[in-house]
Amino acid sequence: MDGLSWEHGQDKRTLKPDRLVVDAGETAVVLARDAPDAHAFTDVLLGQAWPLTGTVWISGREVTSLPTEDRGIALVPAGGGLFPHLTIEQNIGFGVRRRYRHDFRRGQVNYVAGRLNLHGILSWRPHDLSPDERLRVALARAMCHWQAARAVVIEDHAGYTPCHAAVSESLKAYPDLPILVVSDDRHRVETLRASTFSWEVVDADES
User: Fold this and answer.
1) Burial 101-119 (b: 16+ CB within 10 A, else e)
2) Contact (CB, 8 A) for 151 and 180
3) Is residue 124 within 8 Å of residue 133, measured between CB atoms?
4) Other C-beta atoms within 10 Å of 64: how many?
């Protein structure tokens, strides 16, 4: 991300330092002042809101003007965001695009579940899982949505399970992808050992 700025309420927000680069296999953190501030940044990154200035690049390709479905960003929402009435297998399969055949979808779910060591719990429901297991399932669902994800974005918000399990599982199962944690909790991300770089969301005149 280079020269990026966006609106949040009446404020113009940006990143400090200005230029954000996360290479393959690296983990970085963007720290916002609160959850709405974090969501506003994530919306711009995912293509759900327009930036005021700047560009977003993924794997050498500019995606600033592309819609969400063309960016290849696997999103793990804070707390996992699983559907409580669905089994783990159904939650993971929810990420598979519906245009694919049933046998392809089932095969993809089985493959990703195996990669993240989830086969033993596919018939369970989210309330049967530990908070860290829910994050692992959420990562599987995100990866089922993108057969060729280019980056992983993990939300970490106060009041939800810390993101550490999702980060460690992503590093193990998908070591060639960049990981960006978007958080509103400075203390928690300071204990994220995998993190090597950090940025802050600030008012544009503070950058």
Assistant:
1) eeeebeebbbebbeebebe
2) yes
3) no
4) 16
Q: What's the pTM value of the predicted model, to 2 decimals? A: 0.94
Q: List CB contacts of 15: < 8 A, sequence separation 6 or more.
A: 1, 4, 30, 199, 200, 201, 202, 207
Confidence tier at 98 by pLDDT (50, 70, 90): low
Terminal-to-terminal C-alpha distance of the chain: 14
Chain centroid to CA 21: 16
